[in-house]
Amino acid sequence: MESTDSGVHGRYLQAVGEGGITLRELGARPVTDLNGVGDARARALAAADVNSILDLLGFYPRRYLDRTREATVAGLSVGDEGMVLVRVGTVSSRRTRNRRSLVEARVSDDTGELRLTFFNQPWRADQLKVGMQAVVFGRLDSYQGNLQMTNPVVDLVGDRTGRIVAIYPQSETAGLHSWDVDGIVAEALRRVMKVRGLSDPLPDEVRERYGLVGRSDAYRTIHRPGSLHEMGEARRRLVFDELLRIQLALVQRKVDLERTSVGIAHDVGETALLDGFRSGLGFRMTAAQDRVVGEILADLARPAPMHRLLQGDVGSGKTVVAVATMLAAVQGGHQAAVMVPTEVLAEQHHTTISVLLDSMTVSDPATLLGHRPLKVDLLTGRTSAAERRRIGSQLLAGGVDVLIGTHALIQEGVEFGSLGVVVIDEQHRFGVEQRAALRDKNRDGTAPDVLVMTATPITRTAAMTVYGDLDVSVLDEMPPGRNPIATSWHEDDADVWPVVRGEVEAGRQAYVVCPLIDESATLEVRSAEEAFASLSAGELAGLRVGLLHGRLRREDKEETMGLFRSGGLDVLVATTVIEVGVDVPNATAMVILDAARFGIAQLHQLRGRVGRGDQASRCLLVGEAPTPEAEERLRALVRTTDGFELAEVDLDLRGEGTIMGERQKGRNDLRLASLRRDREWVEAARAEALLMVGEGDGMADHPELADEVSLFLADDESDFLLKS
Ligand code: ADP
Ligand code: MG
Question: Going by fewer Cβ within 10 Å, which terminus of the chain is more open, N or C?
Fold first, then answer.
């Protein structure tokens, strides 16, 4: 709705219609509509991405000062942390002997005097002006008989009174101070509330269910809380709104997909193949595998196509689940495809799956016996033209039951007779378009059921957000009898090589992963070559050492991998090309050089390359940690092998920014909500979004919420969400 300008109210927000002001209306109002915002201030605000009144209300305080906790200088004891309101006396700046900048300020209140010292903050000399009032927070020391605080937090609060003072992000260069923002926000709130308040599109029952405050209250008190408790209530409401918008977008997309595509209702009642498969396994499925297979079969039976993400740590047994899924489709006369990101992985899957399905038969009325062996084929970029033609015609005629391959599967001309199930392994290497392309592989336009598998552990709430258009199943249990991988961290590599030699003497094999070099693949290859040369001539002299990196010719790569697999090499020096899918059970040591350069997930994946046989395995992380975060990453790897626990640590260390991706900035960001701190709110928002989209006329029953989703999450943004 457009509000029109007219008469005495001029440019002001004004009452149009019955309800309160919508966020879209606020988004259409520039900040210059507010009294006291001229060109200079508008420019300063624009530098902070605040252009509309909506932006302004969403420019939340960075933190709050609780003035009720203010002390006096005399009332503080040495060694205590405290907050005091002081007036700035003198300010001086100089350099210390070791060339650090040092700013000193003498400040005082009615009860005493205090020295503030700031190291490496030369700008303090300009910030602190004689006579200014400041709220200072820090630990009180005594130095040469004087009371002082070193590098305290300083807030210039102007003459703001009140118990809780909001501190806004400030920019010295743009000349935007916290108290300026405070004044402008106050003016905006006054205008908005005076006219008709904010419209609240959240149904009352949802508000009541979670005890959420109304939207007007939320925006008012996030900026001017009467107490920290009140601020918390406001935050809860605004966090819920942010998460709900994201979930509505994702759930809507999921529902649209289901509505617009015709799937296959598999008959899962007949289970001869599945039963045969189970009893032929040398082990019993874990409870988690059973549960997930159950979830998948329920999806397969429904006419809407399945879009399910299967998460399971390296070694949790995803392949068995995938094969069970495919058999359910093959049982009903359909076909199954497995798409993986690399040729190495495709070949490996082909071998494993062929073994698992060996000697199974499917009914085929065209044959003499009425059945024939279940047929598994492999299609990659290397498949010969003749073989490709054979597979092509058999695929259409239904003579191939399971086809395993790379991107080659989604090329033009590959067409199935009746593709029932698609399994996509290692999801993070494929985009949404590629998933979509596989979905279109049936002549009759029916969409196959899709199971996406990933071994990159991600927290449940992150999965709900990033893969929100998929249902999620989790294999949260390892098959019994696994040898945990002992992980250690060595700042110096000297004590690592004897361990490697020890493993080799015991008849085992080892990987040495070379440092990751972000800037250049060429440098990375060079560093691998150097490590290979120096290790084979030095620390690992006498052992059979091979080199593997992405720039080698395919035949050479193959030969080296083959040699290592068959035990013809003791040690494989490699770049991260071995990260995905290499499976050599006799390899029991994984050395990762300069480990601090890798992220948690990558280290965990690399570590998963060992511990695949029945021997105890080790992972040795090498190198110094250049930052406290790097140290925490390495310590986490040493502490646990649980991928989900590591995912939590990762989220703690990196924040959600990295999960939502780089581009998700500006006003579409999750501003207040944190996937880490607000876990239960992610779940609540998802549950409510499912209800709202799934019931009645779906989003049509919630037009204002639907409009907010498009206001905050432009189409390309939600597309992007799904591609990370
Ligand atoms: P993922 O793909 O999840 O990393 P895999 O499917 O490759 O794991 O399984 C890893 C290994 O564990 C394989 O050798 C597989 O045969 C074995 N395995 C799978 N499920 C079980 C189970 N329930 N009990 C014992 N071993 C299992
Ligand atoms: Mg696997």
Answer: N
